[in-house]
Description:
By secondary structure, the chain is an alpha/beta fold.
Amino acid sequence: MTAGPVRVAYERGVTTLALDAPERRNALSAGLVGALADALAACGRDDAVRAVVLTHTGTAFCAGADLRDPPDPDALVALLRRIVELPKPVVARVLGHVRAGGLGLLGACDIAVAGPEATFAFTEVRIGVAPAVISLPLLPRLDPRAVARYYLTGERFGPAQAVRAGLVTEAGEDADAVLAPILDGLRRASPQGLAATKRLLTARVLETFDRDADGLTALSARLFSSDQAREGMTAFLERRDPAWVW
């Protein structure tokens, strides 16, 4: 079944939510953010759901913010927090490209597995902004040296580097083979045990949300309204280098 741009399936205690706007590379539009938040809320209410798998159709897990129909920054913060606070583990299954805001989704998940075709890049600096809001779930979890390199350069990196940085739990030639024992373990765990353990694991991340969400949301809005961001986004849409590139 589908819920707008999110495809929903259920099997043996696990609900799979697949981002399903491949023509837009599953970019974070206002509609997709709303649909995913609603689907996650439904999972949270359903006692039959032991865990959630977040995956995608098409060649991109998520291309970041949809520059033609961007979500409200507060809505994106709420979505990321919903993933972190959901009393059920959320496991990302990544078989394609992840860029910018899509990495926030990945960072909010409890576990992430990736296949060999997955690529990652924090491209914000290249359009004149910063990975502000998505830092809420990411910075508490990532290796500081690795995240400094990839935040500052915007360069693309692969699954092995993502594992070393702490962005991905495990990568393999067959992501579903990696995923299978993880889901088996979650199916064997009690709902109460999973919820309590997840609260332990996410406490520091939620402290970051409580402390920094307002400031980072304001920073994001300020940067996106700047002259450099307008040039960067225009250059991106026109498939050219922005004016500052040497």
